[in-house]
Specification:
alpha+beta; 5-stranded mixed beta barrel; 4-stranded mixed sheet; 17 strands
Length: about 260
């Protein structure tokens, strides 16, 4: 029995010694693990909402709370150039949200250089606000920045001058049944060829050879069924409108904003 006690005492002593020797190392690791922010150097800008930094084996960082145009869409190049001017080859602070990685293994973060860079992209009309995992503490600031951009009427916030801009109204947005209804309140037909419905993210529906008759409505429903005179189907999507909140953006065939609605 004394031998077992002696061995146990020796083991405990060794463990305490190892912890003491490696305290600073373990403390630094723990602090980094628990930290919600850290600094990094921006080595490359991929697009308007994605950068590459010199940490995490140069993993891409997807900026939280925003969505910028994709390649080939209006303002894609402008959004990327605007972000490059702000952050390329500079030291930034990364602030992490509820989830640190997305499904593509990119780091998710808000980025700062004295101010929130994500917000600057919104208020200058190069991004819309985007919270697919639910709204966080930044949501109201981001929404307000978009509303300020609407007032400035610039870039992605620039209002359509199409004569039908004042005719088309959103009669219904039902996220539970994945349905949207538009109504033409004018006394003339509106050709919506090339007009686009978009959510906060990457999903969009483009009207193809469609005219909304005067004082008539059209239902756009997520599904794979055949279009009819009264229903158009948003194909190739399981869902569009999220239960945690989303926004609908309607744009004319020039990409100008007809209206937007969030819930």
């Amino acid at each position: 029995m004394p031998s077992k006690k002696r061995d146990l005492t020796l083991l405990i002593t060794l463990i305490v010694l190892l912890i003491t020797i490696n305290y600073n190392y373990l403390d630094n690791k723990l602090e980094k693990f628990l930290s919600t922010s850290e600094t990094a150097h921006v080595e490359r800008v991929i697009d308007g909402d994605t950068i590459v930094v010199d940490i995490y084996n140069k993993t891409s960082v997807r900026m939280l709370g925003i969505n910028t145009p994709e390649r080939g869409e209006p303002y894609y190049k402008e959004a990327k150039g605007f972000l490059e001017d702000l952050v390329l080859n500079k030291t930034i602070t990364l602030e992490y949200g509820k989830e640190k990685y997305d499904r593509y293994k990119r780091v998710l973060a808000y980025i700062y250089i004295n101010e929130n860079i994500n917000v600057k992209l919104i208020e200058n009309g190069f991004a819309n606000f985007y919270f697919p995992s639910g709204r966080d503490v930044h949501y109201e600031d981001f929404k307000k920045s978009w509303e300020n951009c609407i007032v400035k009427n610039i870039n992605l916030c620039e209002k359509s001058t199409d004569k039908c801009c004042e005719c088309i109204e959103l009669k219904k947005l039902d996220y539970k049944n994945q349905e949207v209804i538009f109504y033409n309140r004018c006394n003339f037909d509106c050709n919506l060829e090339g007009w686009k419905i978009k959510d906060e993210g990457r999903k969009n529906f483009i009207f193809d050879n469609f005219v909304l008759k005067k004082n008539k409505e059209i239902l756009i429903k997520v599904g794979e069924e055949k279009n009819t005179d009264d229903i158009l189907y948003w194909k190739n999507e399981d869902y569009v409108w999220t239960e945690t909140g989303d926004s609908l953006f309607l744009r004319d065939n020039s990409g100008k904003l007809v209206f937007w609605k969030n819930y």
